[in-house]
DNA sequence: CGAGTTATTGACAATGCTCAAAGTACGTGG
DNA sequence: CCACGTACTTTGAGCATTGTCAATAACTCG
């Protein structure tokens, strides 16, 4: 009995250690030595899964942790006075959440689970301290932030120059690439976000999202059924997303 | 003779040291002890001024330095295949340029001087190493990057939700605030960027920028003459930029 | 199974873009 | 210092893309 409990306990610990985590090659400790991974592991806190719709952090709450997504997905929504929300990001497994709160020491948006989602909680002050002793960790942190800036700049381009069709095509091919990178199918996946979320993120009305998805289907680019997506012609989508005309 | 040369040399050194720099309260070493400022100072390289239109860095060039603007201003322009450029940022004195190149080890855009501009060049590997020994410097670096992410998210909101009028109003009041923070007039300044640059940045056609600036003038919000701007009603501009209707 | 949310579809309107042309500022060289 | 060429800015007219409003259809989950 005690043996079984212990075994269960140990296996639970094991499955929640960075070294055995399937995301280790994508996540923050990706470049670390074994010893360093252990040190990093020691400051990480595992959390109970979030249910769909639950908030991981609330806008304006004091900043103290960053989070790495283990499974599921989240959205970040910033509300301004006037009730118009802006969805600024979707987060998938291995991605780091909360880095935009460092500066003002508050989280700049609500982070909401789109489905059942588990995250690792990483106290930022300890991460910062550890990054002093582990240069590789510091590098990785700088890289994550730098990448986030670059991604946002891509998004600026999307919002300022792309047509509605190009935006949807970008969105789908980018999701496809992100899933592929994580070992999932690049051609067949389920959207965890609503059409309204997609529209909000892409700067389009829900109706436009719906219409264009319909059109893509007619054009045999994708097969969409509710939130289930099958990509039929990834190349064409990618071309479209870069503004190349299609026949 | 030798004395004079030495004196000149020393004074030139003095005027280009962080401790005597008028931007020290806004720039990277803002929170450091005197000793640490000296250590930071030692890795900073001063550069000959850039002339208007000159490139500080070219897109895709290998990343090695970040830069702090000392005087003047710059724009960042990313070109994608297909010749459509996206202007992603304007940089004013004390701001840090190049942080978005860390991740890919290439600069993601051309950085072009909008007028005669001087910058401090900071080798990133040395900055990184120094940030190991000076926690306050590391904190400041994280903050700068975090702020850049937050600013970009604000920009996403602007591009995805704001009307052309709101965008221009945001642009002007944001510039006003940035000048004020740097000790310049918040009400009277000269735009170093062209209407085309503004339009590109805000996701608008040049013609729209011109028309709306004209309308703002009719409405007595600003007085614009070429690139010279006088803000007549900052409150109204700020209200407008948040989408509040105006009479 | 039914209430509420989410998605689709249609008709119409508006904001901002494109194209075109003229006017103005700028800077370079004579 | 002025003249000229170039680049930048303004203004007008028509139009396209996408948003808004409205109604219906399809899920989702107690």
From TrEMBL, chains A, B:
Residues 162-235 form the HTH crp-type domain. It holds the Pfam family HTH_Crp_2. Gene3D superfamilies: Jelly Rolls (2.60.120.10), Winged helix-like DNA-binding domain superfamily/Winged helix DNA-binding domain (1.10.10.10). SUPFAM superfamilies: cAMP-binding domain-like, Winged helix' DNA-binding domain. GO terms for molecular function: DNA binding; DNA-binding transcription factor activity. The gene is fnr. One of its GO terms (cellular component) is cytosol. It comes from Pistricoccus aurantiacus. InterPro entries: cNMP-bd_dom, cNMP-bd_dom_sf, Env_Response_Regulators, HTH_CRP, RmlC-like_jellyroll, Tscrpt_reg_HTH_Crp-type_CS, WH-like_DNA-bd_sf, WH_DNA-bd_sf. This is Fumarate/nitrate reduction transcriptional regulator Fnr. The keyword Lyase does not apply. Keywords: DNA-binding, Transcription, Transcription regulation. The lineage of its organism: Bacteria, Pseudomonadati, Pseudomonadota, Gammaproteobacteria, Oceanospirillales. CDD domains: CAP_ED, HTH_CRP. PROSITE patterns: HTH_CRP_1, HTH_CRP_2.
């Amino acid at each position: 009995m005690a043996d079984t409990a212990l075994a269960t306990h140990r296996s639970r610990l094991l499955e929640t250690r960075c070294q055995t985590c399937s995301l280790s090659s994508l996540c923050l400790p990706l470049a670390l030595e074994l010893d360093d991974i252990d040190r990093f592991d020691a400051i990480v806190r595992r959390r109970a899964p979030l249910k769909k719709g639950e908030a991981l952090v609330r806008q304006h709450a004091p900043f103290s942790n960053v989070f790495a997504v283990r499974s599921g997905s989240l959205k970040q929504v910033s509300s301004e006075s006037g009730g118009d929300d802006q969805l600024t990001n979707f987060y998938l497994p291995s991605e780091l959440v909360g880095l935009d709160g460092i500066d003002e020491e508050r989280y700049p948006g609500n982070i909401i689970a789109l489905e059942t989602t588990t995250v690792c909680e990483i106290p930022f002050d300890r991460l910062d301290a550890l990054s002093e002793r582990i240069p590789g960790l510091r590098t990785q942190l700088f890289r994550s932030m730098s990448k986030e800036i670059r991604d946002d700049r891509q998004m600026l381009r999307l919002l300022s120059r792309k047509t509605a069709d190009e935006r949807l095509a970008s969105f789908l091919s980018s999701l496809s690439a992100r899933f592929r990178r994580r070992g999932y199918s690049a051609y067949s996946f389920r959207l965890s976000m609503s059409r309204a979320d997609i529209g909000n993120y892409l700067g389009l009305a829900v109706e436009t999202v719906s219409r264009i998805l319909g059109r893509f289907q007619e054009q045999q680019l994708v097969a969409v059924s509710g939130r289930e997506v099958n990509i039929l012609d990834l190349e064409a989508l990618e071309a479209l997303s870069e503004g190349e005309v299609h026949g």
